[in-house]
Amino acid sequence: MKFQIDDYIGLIKHRGKNYVDSSGRHIYYEKTQYTPLICHKIMRVEDHLMSSTVWLKDVTFSFKVKRPPSSKKSWAQVLYLNGLPWLIYEFLEQRVEDTRRKI
Q: How far apart are CA 67 and CA 58, in angstroms?
């Protein structure tokens, strides 16, 4: 294994299928379903000591992220699972068209 993957987004973005977990066991992960990827405007960012909280327009709850988005990035792409916002996929400077990703 060449790369350390720390979260679900890293796993979704990676193209491999075979992984090793932190205890050394082999994991086979194959993407099987598509989920919507929708753009939302960033309303506010709250900086904390170890993480940041991001509030998005049209989403009733906040997202906790490791690092705050740069001041240039005013949009966030959000993965939806079962019709509900799930994870922030990435931060963007400009809005892009809504699409889908295989997870």
A: 22
